[in-house]
Amino acid sequence: MDSLLSTMEFHQTVPEQFVLPPEKRVAGEINTSVSLPVIDLRGGPHCYVEDRDKLIEQVLQAGKEFGFFQVINHGVSEQLMKDIMGVTEEFFNMPKEDKAAFYSEDTSKTNRLFSSTIYGKDGPRYWRDCLKLACYPVPETINEWPDKPTKFREVLAKFIVEAREVSMMLLTLICEGLGLKEGYFEGDVSSGQVLINANYYPPCPKPDLTLGLPPHCDRNLITLLLQGEVSGLQIMHQGRWVGAAPVPNAFVVNFGHQLEIITNGILKSVEHRAVTNSGAARMSMAVFIMPTMESFISSAKELINEENPPLYKSFLFKDFLRIYTDLSAKRVDVMEAFKVNG
Fold first, then answer.
1. What residue ranges of the chain have pLDDT lower than 50?
2. CATH architecture of the domain with residue range 21-338
3. DSSP letter string over 216-273?
């Protein structure tokens, strides 16, 4: 518990274990001339969209060019988004004795509170605290969530259902746009755990010495991120880092490795990282749609032909997770491991 950044009153220096080797530190200019596409979902999952073809085109184009985009008018209310960020902030601000039951450095535990992220046995530590929870189906998971603050469970239960609906809407649009059979992304490929990472990045006295999260790609199918009002997310685009400026009441959407493999590389899982700052604490809430552990992942047959042979091997999702962890989530290494003839 003493290693939790959120339990310390202030940080005047960066502890040695958080100081990155020079080659891993933030370097180079940020490309400020490029911004992520912002897509209007016209009301979200339960709204009939007249210009559906145009919406599908926008989603696919953003996915092909960036692998990231932001969505507005997605159907999750502004009040609910404020509420989930509010109760999460309350959680991190609680006395450490109230959080002690959830604290664990055991990476095999699904539900836990921990400090930092360590990739590799002797890797550096990163400047964040994280509350990780399995959240779906709600009736099967809710009793394992923190019961403090008082409304935490109530708010998260509503939020996770609505956030998942937005994710499934986007997957349906992608399915239609790529000509896959109806319901392709339903079933095992999207009915595994819905995980959240509630992230807290305190002000850092020397942001140039550390990172909140290292460059990585997500291991799952699709991710929704509620990133709050403080900037920190950066995306690799055409060899340069691009900042994802917060858009009010928007979700940042990005594709995981599984979606890139299923679409045979049409849609990309793109490297991203979290940087720190010295002026303000930053919070974010990431929602990960996961396949079941026994889900069989392969490139969709509809997207394979003589001109477009399969780029990736087929595998069980549980086997992918093992290799992803062994390779410290590095995109080049992970994708190379699953390439045909890789």
1. none
2. Sandwich (2.60)
3. E--SSSEEEEE--SS--EEEEETTEEEE----TT-EEEEE-HHHHHHTTTSS----EE
